[in-house]
Design brief:
2 domains
Length: 81
Amino acid sequence: MDTLKINVSLPVRMYEDARVLVEKGLYGSFSEIVRAGIRSEMEQQREINPGFIKSVHAAEKGRISKFKGKKEFLEDLHKGL
């Protein structure tokens, strides 16, 4: 699996709570918590609107490059929902 390193800004309290879960052994790493949260959100979106994942995959394959900014991309993604 290819990976991508990113930076994420979080409220201090959220980060501290997540670190506690790692320290207690509920997650192997902070990255694992982030991945679990994203998976959960994607699953919820899939249940609400099956077309959501299709739109995300289309964007991933290069559609995003035709947009000038995030606003236009999000508007197009929303239309796909």
